[in-house]
Every structure is written in structure tokens, then in C-alpha cells.
Specification:
The protein is α/β, with parallel strands linked by helices and 295 residues long. 50% of the residues lie in helices and 11% in strands. It has 10 helices and 5 strands. Strands 2-1-3-4-5 form a 5-stranded parallel beta sheet. Helix 7 packs parallel to helix 9. The longest helix has 23 residues. It starts with 6 loop residues before the first helix and ends with a helix.
């Protein structure tokens, strides 16, 4: 019968694992790490620059739904008197947009647009899941460098500030696969909205900003109508909880994007494609102009 390893082996293993996790955490949250630092620095530059010609400064924070709806080439065209910038990240939750909130606290914009998806809470075990993913990617990257095996090459990380330079790119897939994946995504969205929590730290930050005179706009970006029908019960319950946690007021406004009768305006049932963004642009420009005028 094999004997158990000495106690010191277990101790050494635990110390090694703790060191690896600490290193991965440092690499993940260090202030110089992109995209966290790049986004925060871009936000700082936007808010620190003197307003040009008395323009109203509008900053948006959101998910990739906001990126897809507001491509860089469309929105600024019809915005006289407005400086507009938005920073986005993939998926729900505040994620690596959070460092920008400290900059916003110190130097707030006139108007802060919040895509409601980033008020969704982080999922359970999201930190450990990400650490495991980072560990796997680093391990595969090392194996790739040592062995030169293309199958071991890790996927490319999200490119910081790509949403500032490029339009959201819809994947080209056959219609039957697209519909199957859209249904799968709708089921996942139901699970996300089924979480009753609303990010309490972000709620408190928004309340403090509103008390300081910053106008807060909570923007609901609608998905394709048939997806909206699937997720409606869970989504409406969550939106009701959001309004209870952050009631409308003089400096807190709620906006919902239009319902479009046209089909095929979303590339995956959630993100607007180029045609959808072109329809959205004049509506969004009008909303920003009304906010500029205090309406």
C-alpha cells in the first residue's frame, strides 16, 4: 500500500498554488494592465480636456450592445453642441469599466449614459473562473511558445479601445446555425436576468453623482423582437427591481430604444448590425439633443 505524501509536500503545494493565484490576480488587476488601464486613461483624457465651445459633455458606459448600436462613424455626425464618447465591454456587468468610475467621481461629465446591462451583477465565482481561464491561457501560451503547435495558441484577448476605432463586427454564419445559436443565447440571457440582484455599489455611485447635479440616463437597448418576447418575464422583473433601487427623479432618467418592425436588424438577436445602427442613430441623436437642451 502506497504511503501518503509527507505533510510538507501538501504545504509546499498549497503555497505554490497560492503564489500562482496571487500572481494571476496581480496580472489581472494591476493598474498598467489593458484593457482596464487603457479604458480608464481614455476616460480621463476625455473628461480632463476643456469643453470646446461650451459643449455639453456626455459619457456612455455600456456593454457590447451599446458598442453595436453606436458605431464611431455614425453618432457624432448630427450632434451640435455635444461632446460624446462611450466606453464598452463584452457582456453584462461593470467589469473592467469600474476603474473609470473613480475618474468620473473626480471629474464628472454633464450627462452619464448607463447601458442597463452593466448594472447586472457579476455572476457567482466569476473571479475564480477568470483566474482559471487566465491560468489555462498562460499555460497554453507557454506550451505554444515551446512547442510551436498552432493548436495550443491561446485565443486573442479583447483589444482595448477597439470600440472607439471600429464598428461592431457581426459574424457571418449560415441562417440555421445563427438561429440555433440565437435561441441558445436567449436562454442564457434569461438566466442572467433571473438573478434578482442589481449592482449595489454602482447604484450608490450613480445616486451620489445625481445628487451632485450629474444627469444620469439609464438606457435599455432592446434586442430583436422575438428574443425580447422570449426573455420578457425575467427581464421585466429585473427592470422593475432596478427602478425600485434607483427611482426616476430630476437627475435620473430612463430611456428605452425604439421597437423596429423591420426584421434582420440584429446579427445575433441581440447586437444591432449596420442596418440597425443606421436606424438607431437619428433616434439617439435626438435623445442627446433633448438632454443637451435640458428636456
Amino acid at each position: 500500500m502506497a504511503s501518503a505524501p509527507p505533510l510538507r509536500i501538501w504545504l509546499y503545494s498549497a503555497v505554490l498554488m497560492a503564489s500562482v493565484l496571487a500572481l494571476l490576480a496581480l496580472l489581472r488587476w494591476a493598474p498598467w494592465r489593458a484593457p482596464d488601464y487603457a479604458i480608464a486613461n481614455h476616460t480621463r483624457q476625455f473628461l480632463a480636456a476643456p469643453p470646446s465651445g461650451g459643449k455639453v459633455r456626455v459619457l456612455g458606459l455600456g456593454s457590447s450592445l451599446l458598442w453595436a448600436a453606436t458605431p464611431p462613424a455614425l453618432v457624432p455626425i448630427a450632434l451640435p453642441g455635444i461632446d460624446w464618447m462611450r466606453m464598452t465591454k463584452p457582456g453584462p456587468g461593470i467589469g473592467y469599466l469600474e476603474p473609470s468610475l473613480d475618474i468620473i467621481d473626480r471629474n464628472p461629465p454633464d450627462i452619464l449614459v448607463i447601458d442597463e446591462n452593466i448594472l447586472l451583477p457579476d455572476q457567482d465565482n466569476v473571479i475564480m473562473d477568470q483566474l482559471r481561464q487566465d491560468f489555462i491561457l498562460e499555460s497554453k501560451g507557454l506550451a505554444f511558445r515551446l512547442a510551436g503547435d498552432v493548436r495550443l495558441a491561446p485565443p486573442q484577448a479583447y483589444a482595448a479601445l477597439v470600440d472607439q476605432r471600429e464598428a461592431f463586427a457581426c459574424a457571418t454564419v449560415p441562417a440555421d446555425i445563427r438561429r440555433r445559436e440565437t435561441l441558445k443565447n436567449a436562454a442564457n440571457i434569461q438566466l442572467v436576468f433571473n438573478n434578482p440582484a442589481v449592482n449595489p455599489q454602482l447604484i450608490r455611485r450613480l445616486q451620489r453623482l445625481a445628487q451632485r447635479g450629474v444627469r444620469i440616463v439609464l438606457l435599455e437597448l432592446r434586442r430583436a423582437e422575438w428574443v425580447e418576447q422570449i426573455i420578457a418575464p425575467e427581464k421585466q422583473r429585473w427592470l422593475s427591481r432596478l427602478r425600485q433601487a434607483l427611482p426616476p427623479g430630476p437627475n435620473i432618467h430612463y430611456l428605452t430604444s425604439p421597437h423596429y418592425a423591420q426584421q434582420d436588424l440584429h446579427c445575433d438577436g441581440s447586437h444591432m448590425n449596420a442596418a440597425g445602427a443606421r436606424l438607431f442613430a437619428p433616434w439617439w441623436a435626438t435623445q442627446l439633443q433633448q438632454l443637451r437642451d435640458g428636456r
